[in-house]
Design goal:
The complex is a heterodimer of chains A (239) and B (653). Chain A is an alpha+beta fold. Chain A is 26% helix and 33% strand. In chain B, the strands form 8 sheets. Chain B has a 6-stranded antiparallel beta sheet with strand order 4-5-6-7-9-8. Classes of the chains: A alpha+beta (239), B alpha+beta (653).
């Protein structure tokens, strides 16, 4: 299988800084629209810097840079190695924050997917989200790690960084397999504060190229208000 | 298709906020540590369980933080103090360092010197500190001086100078259980903390960060308790609950934090909630961990007591239960605690009046209150999936309804079940939801109904069910067959879960038989409602299943006519050469021949196949009918010549 990948980032209409970052294959982005065509594998992450922390965008950038550097190709899909590496990155971020007052307590969420040959792994920490769009249905793959999932803006209970270690990695996903035609969506929580599932579905179900879908979703979110940062990755599974 | 094989703070931190963000979330679980460090050397608290992620407690490099060391003299508000000790290199919240200092007369104080705040709104509330400074009360740690805003130390660091508590904090003891007996708690702890809270509230100050580390022993003998640490304190003129504006900050250490506090709702009840959690810590120290807190929250939502209280502590359990009620209106406050202290029997209202009834699901014009109404909605509304599952609000209502009628744990199971079967399509999801709520449903295959719930001879019914699938599988899409198999497994597992005795054993044996036929390891339980039989099902596994449930099964053609011998099968293909490549018949041939020790016939070409079966027959027929065949020696290159020029087909017929 191969993958078309598209990503978009925007600070939104209310904020000056975008604390979201995305990692697509080997590139990290903080704004704009980007795409990769016919990739042989998939290594994509979205990090949402915690707004109340100092320099949340620093944490988001830091995590993705470390991921890119430390997860070697042959280790990508091995869950135990991935867990170890992610925990060590978390420790580094906390330690860095303690040594640098301007970054003390900086933190970020993370959601991502690694697909290599016939194996895949979803990872989540925080309240960013992963979905799969299949058979005209949006299926949420990850559970938000928050205190009360019924409440908007419920405190997140797991994240990278912060002042003390609160990371609880979630490798569980309901996704059993990846099929040709699937569109995976990784996103910070800003997207579904602006748009409904129905709206996003309508865009994903049209026959336009993936990059067009990404642009349309972004534009729709901005037109609706986009009070929060936007950072999302779309991954289309093709033959 | 890629298979899953590894199966596989707006976010505001408690001490910071994004002033531009109305939707900031607070971060929970910050600063849950297994060690407390205040006013003494680090003391290991024997009764704390390991549950939180380990805390890294290495000291921050002092030269980077404040640049202060023991022996340094600092000037605060025109007064000089000498640093005599560093009590806590990093306090529980990671926001300040506690120093022991002395003035020129040698009097000791505690100096809480904060790290630099990046957002001024996170700084301690100056009005609260001003009021606290004016309080002289035996239950409140005396605050002598503070610096915020323009009076910060070195214009960077907020600080508080307070009385020095010689006895450290509430849990700086070697054995919590030994110290905090019920009698001790009643006589010394509860009264003292209650008085301290009332004093603050009388001055219109809410502490907002009550926790064991902020309850201090003034004396080395650890008998005189006072409330300290006012970094999160707030002032309010109103006594009713008030929602902070979105630009304000919510602070607090979260195990003890009232659930409404991260949402910006602050009232006296916040402190009473924390009071309850402190008592919980003292009596049930093993519960101070992340997992327990999750369970506590689940039970709060389920309107149940937060834990399974030990009857041994019956005298205090009610107090804890009343103080930790989720609903602010029902939660105990000053009057209730006073009543409890007086020996009154105070009611614990787990549900407010409004919450007493299950919250219905309101979808536009439809309102769903009961299971029957939900089933009816799903069965009769074409948009049920969009309304109840895909729509975030609708699904949230459904989940809340599930947790109301069942409990929060079931809500999670239901959610996971939904997300699992969504991947298989709306049909699978619909059946799973319907069967989840109303298990005793039959299975329909075309016009025939199979009711496993009412059938005594469930093994025979299963055989008939699978036989029916055997009759239709060649003319039915595989996805549909999978759907039937899914329903079969779902039903059998639900039956297994509720039956006892012989019937249970019978159902288990059926499940094992199916698992074996499909080469799947049987699940031990069905707690998560995940079915395995249909996932990965293919034609090959299906036919194995048919053979497993029909010992006499033989080769069946597309019309399900049976052929019992190799020769019969050969004759069938001799008549129907065009069907030799049919995928179903190939499979039928393969399974039959392998099970009858004719494996070498499986992959032969058409001519080779017929030759292999009939070459002996051909010779004998020659003798009988006196037809001569000229056979070349190599079977791969057969040419049959007839005396009378007949074709092979003609020969046979």
């Amino acid at each position: 299988m191969k993958y078309n990948i598209a990503a978009f980032l925007h600070a939104g209409t209310q904020r000056k800084i975008n604390q979201d970052r995305v990692l697509i294959q080997d590139s990290i982005y903080d704004e704009g629209i980007h795409c990769v065509s016919e990739a042989e594998d998939c290594f994509c992450f979205v990090a949402d810097g915690i707004g109340g922390c100092p320099s949340g965008e620093f944490a988001a950038q830091f995590i993705l840079e470390q991921l890119r550097e430390k997860i070697k190709k042959e280790d990508k899909y091995v869950k135990e190695n991935l867990s170890k590496i992610l925990k060590s990155i978390n420790t580094e971020l906390i330690t860095f924050g303690r040594s640098n007052p301007d970054y003390h307590g900086t933190g970020t969420t993370l959601v991502g997917i690694i697909v290599q040959k016939d194996k895949f792994q979803v990872v989540n920490a925080g309240d960013s989200q992963a979905f799969v769009f299949r058979n005209n249905t949006m299926i949420k793959l990850t559970e938000d790690q928050v205190l009360d999932s019924f409440e908007d803006n419920s405190p997140i209970t797991s994240y990278f960084g912060g002042k003390t270690d609160n990371l609880c990695l979630d490798f569980d996903t309901v996704l059993r397999n990846i099929l040709i035609g699937d569109i995976l969506l990784l996103t910070s929580d800003g997207l579904f504060k602006s748009l409904t599932i129905k709206q996003v579905k309508a865009i994903l179900s049209n026959s336009k190229p993936l990059i067009d879908k990404a642009q349309f979703i972004l534009q729709k979110a901005l037109d609706t208000g986009a009070e929060d940062n936007l950072g999302s990755v779309l991954i289309e599974v093709i033959d | 298709m890629t298979d899953h094989t590894t199966n596989s703070i707006s976010k505001t931190m408690p001490y910071s906020s994004d002033k531009n963000d109305a939707s900031n979330k607070t971060v929970g679980y910050e600063n849950e540590t297994a060690k407390t460090q205040t006013y003494e050397e680090e003391v290991r608290i024997a009764d704390k369980t390991v549950g939180y992620e380990s805390e890294e407690t290495e000291l921050i490099d002092k030269t980077i933080a404040h640049g202060l060391a023991v022996g340094d003299v600092i000037e605060l508000n025109d007064k000089e103090y000498e640093i005599t000790d560093i009590i806590c290199a990093e306090n529980q919240t990671g926001e300040a360092i506690i120093y022991k200092i002395k003035n020129s007369q040698g009097k000791p104080f505690a100096l809480k010197l904060y790290y630099q705040f990046t957002n001024p709104k996170d700084e301690p509330n100056p009005e609260a500190l001003r009021r606290i400074k004016a309080i002289s009360d035996p239950d409140i740690l005396r605050l002598y001086d503070f610096g915020t805003g323009t009076s910060k130390y070195r214009n960077k660091f907020c600080y508080e100078i307070s009385e020095f508590a010689e006895g450290s904090n509430l849990i700086s003891v070697t054995d919590i259980r030994k110290k905090y007996t019920i009698e001790f708690l009643k006589l010394n702890v509860i009264q003292e903390i209650f008085k301290g809270i009332r004093t603050l509230h009388d001055h219109k100050i809410y502490h907002c960060d009550l926790k064991p580390e902020n309850i201090l022993y003034l004396d080395k003998e650890q008998s005189d308790l006072i409330i300290g640490d006012y970094g999160s304190a707030k002032t309010f003129e109103e006594t009713s609950e008030k929602r902070l504006t979105h630009t304000s900050t919510t602070k607090g250490t979260n195990f003890y934090l009232a659930p409404e506090q991260p949402r910006g709702i602050v009232s006296e009840k916040n402190d009473y909630y924390s009071f309850g959690m402190i008592l919980l810590h003292l009596i049930y120290p093993e519960l101070v961990n992340r997992d327990s807190l999750h369970k506590i929250i689940e039970r709060q939502f389920a309107k149940k007591p937060i834990i399974d209280f030990n009857p041994k502590y019956a005298e205090i359990n009610d107090l804890i239960a009343g103080l930790t009620l989720h609903d602010i209106g029902s939660r105990w406050g000053e009057n209730e605690v006073k009543g409890w202290l007086s020996g009154e029997d105070i009611e614990i209202k787990y549900k407010s009046k409004a919450e007493a009834a299950i919250q219905p699901i309101k979808l536009g014009k439809a309102t769903i209150r009961t299971t029957e109404e939900l089933i009816d909605y799903i069965e009769n509304n074409i948009d049920w999936h969009m309304d109840l599952i895909e729509d975030k609000e609708g699904y949230g209502l459904l989940l809340r309804w599930v947790s109301d009628i069942q409990d929060l744990g079931r809500k999670k199971i239901f959610d996971k079940m939904v997300r699992n079967y969504q991947q298989d399509g709306e049909g699978f999801l619909k059946q799973s939801v319907l069967r989840y709520f109303t298990p005793e449903r039959p299975i329909q295959i075309d016009m025939k109904t199979y009711d496993f719930w009412t059938e005594e001879k469930i093994d025979e019914l299963t055989e008939r069910f699978i036989s029916h699938l055997d009759d239709i599988w060649k003319i039915t899409p595989l996805e549909k067959i999978k759907f039937y198999i899914f329903q079969l497994e779902f039903t059998l597992r639900q039956i297994e879960a509720v039956t006892q005795g012989q019937q249970k054993v019978l159902v288990q044996s059926i499940i094992e038989k199916i698992s074996s036929a499909l080469s799947i390891s049987p699940r031990l339980d069905f707690d998560d409602y995940v079915c395995d039989f249909y996932d990965g099902l293919n034609d090959s596994k299906l036919i194995s299943l048919f053979y497993a449930f029909d010992a006499k099964r033989v080769f069946k053609d597309l019309e399900n006519k049976e052929y019992n011998t190799v020769e019969d099968i050969g004759l069938f293909f001799a008549r129907n050469k065009n069907l030799y490549g049919n995928k179903y018949l190939k499979l039928e041939k393969e399974v039959f021949f392998k099970s009858n020790n004719y494996s070498n016939y499986v992959n032969l070409s058409y001519d080779e196949f017929l030759y292999s079966i009939f070459n002996k027959n051909i010779k004998s027929q020659i003798q009988i009918s006196d037809v001569l065949f000229d056979l070349k020696k190599s079977p791969k290159d057969i040419q049959i010549k007839y005396k009378f020029g007949k074709s092979l087909t003609d020969f046979f017929f």
